[in-house]
Hints:
By secondary structure, this protein is α+β, with helices and mostly antiparallel strands. Among the domains are: 2-137, no CATH class; 153-273, Orthogonal Bundle (Arc Repressor Mutant, subunit A), CATH 1.10.10. It is 35% helix and 21% strand. It has helices at 2-5, 22-29, 41-46, 56-62, 65-75, 126-137, 155-177, 189-202, 208-215, 232-236, 257-269, 323-350, 362-367, 400-405, and strands spanning 13-18, 79-86, 93-99, 107-112, 117-123, 153-154, 186-187, 240-244, 251-255, 273-282, 285-296, 301-308, 314-321, 411-412, 419-420. The strands form three sheets. The protein has a ten-stranded antiparallel sheet with strand order 1-5-4-3-2-10-11-12-13-6, with helices on both faces. A three-stranded antiparallel sheet has the order 7-9-8. β4 (107-112) and β5 form a beta hairpin. The longest helix is centred in the C-terminal third of the chain and has 28 residues, at 323-350.
Amino acid sequence: MEKELLENTEHLHLIILNRKDIGPIFLDFLKVTPNNISPFTEILNKYARGTVPLSPEAETLTRDEVFASIAQVLAAPDLLIKNRLGGSMVPFDEIRICGGKPIGQALALVTIGENDSYVIRVFNDFRELVNWWVDSFAGKNQETIANYIPPTVNLEQFLFILHAVDWFKRESYKNALDYAAGQNILVKPEDFSQGMEKAVQSRDMRWLLPAFVMLVPGFERLKIDLQPGDAKVLNDMQFFNNTRDPQSQEERLIFGEAGHAMGVEFMRSWLLAAGFELSVMYKNSIRVTKQFFVAPTALANHFVELEPSDKGRCLINHQAYTFEQLKYKLETIVKETFEQHLQKAYEESAGSQSQPCPNVTLAQKQDKPEQITRAVCSACGTQLESNSKFCVECGTSVPASMEAKSDKQAAYCTSCGQEAPSGSKFCTNCGSPVK
């Protein structure tokens, strides 16, 4: 999995952190106080301060400017996104993504690396993170397909649907091994019911139902109350139709349009799935703001959102997204977490209405001494080089006032890094002095 996670990250800042250095760096050197949603909580809670010297690799890391910027957030994040990956061809892995006020809208992704180490990737904002994730894991389909699962069913009904999709694949494989491919698949109701319990207990992520149960973080906290009537959704939504065995005349189930279509889709092109849980620290308590599941295939990115209901049962909203639709949905979820839940958490912690979280990226923090304000051509809009007298694109003469402007250093806020209008003494974003 580590090889796959390193793809599409050439433009990102990568940090390798050895497990043995976590305690000495965070507790002894930086003296930070970890919270309960840190990716390193378990390690830091077990570490005895001052018992392990700082290694040469750790000393080098403490001088890394990007690591210094994100260290507080890694130890005590305000936002944690858990992302579990696995599936029919992908081993289980868990990614943890941290955010917090000290780094604005930047995000730090942590995953287990090789040789007892952690790999940390830094994204300047949520869009950069989402772009990386969908490029790495999402299905690249561009056309919409039929959504055979109604927009809202309860969790128990959805578990039956997942099992029906798995059962189609299971019975198709059996028919192929028996040289009976092409024959109608007749299902005994009692075999289907008994197989569902075995599937959940198996934890075998080569099958969709166990993958869903294992990959959605916090699934174990959900209250599941299977009722006999929950299986009725399979007939209502054409996953199964009732029939009889032509020889014994006993009751049987035969796959309907939805069961056949989704069964074929997942049997032929499903390789991995991903579960997500977003949590925010509100003072000293953890609040889960979103849980969802993504199962990409060649035809669709199946997006499954878990929504609590007033009646105590969890509701499921399923959509079959294109690549671009999934990308937009993920961006919307993380953006809302920043603008609503995270901002509210800051306000509660401060005890009053605080300033919005600054829209700052780590790239701005590192590069702002080099940034200058460039003039543009009044005729064609092309950016002008310093001291240019004519536009290199269209030849239009550049006024002297614009020549002088192109040499001026931009002003930046010393607190949040926001660029300030020329002549400003205080930041229009947070009120701090500018330089």
